[in-house]
Amino acid sequence: MGVILVSAGGKGMSDIKVTKDPSGYNVRAVERALQILECFDDEHPEMGVSEIAQMVGLHKATTHRIVTTLLNFGYLARAVDGQRYRLGLRLTELGFRAVRRLDLRREALMYMNQLSQQWGETCDLSIFEQGEVFYIEMIQGSRALTIAAAVGQRLPAHCTASGKVFLAYLPAPELDKLLSKPLIPYTWKTISSAMRLRQQLELIRQQGYAFDDEEFEMGIRAVACPIFNREGSVIATISIPSPVSRMTLERVPEIAGALAEATWAISHRMGWNS
Q: What is the CATH number of the domain that holds 71?
């Protein structure tokens, strides 16, 4: 199952949590790399391998291997003297990503609550990550039976409303790469032809929203609209999924209009001007 059916006031399977000791999952090499990164602070902005090894309690050879790996991936950079190291810009990039996501959630939540109250349906916020839809926020609807994707869940792009929005606005080379792979049919309505999907993506760009007509799971429809950033790139989508009995084809344009109004407002709050 790609989605969870949730009864109002009840709990879905996503509410059941198993608590385990997190230390049992730690990878020693990753621990050491993180310890090295955390050595750098205001008092130690630049350090050589020997100094780092002493601070983390590792052999110099082991420290050198980890430092070299971090350097190659941009998490460390060489200092001006060429002998010491400092934190790399890659960490700054990751930090900005985290901040942007926090801003996105904060800006989107008010509108998501309004949409959920207006329609009585679940409202999802998702981003595009590694070619898949990744759900980062969800407001549960008030109906007796609602459709919910769990926060942290990943779903395929080609057969979900949010995913098709992301695909519609991808740069051509990235889209070509993704569509060069087989499009797995999840239901008999899934678009598994790259040519047909490209035609639908063009329509999505024209109308400003995407519609999933039981393409991922029978009995479930969804509508999604894009959220743009300052540069005009799609950074997220908001979607409303619903059983087909409530999301009739006649109702889709009305829901899409309300979604578009909300995502337009969020986009402007995120710096988009168009």
A: 1.10.10.10
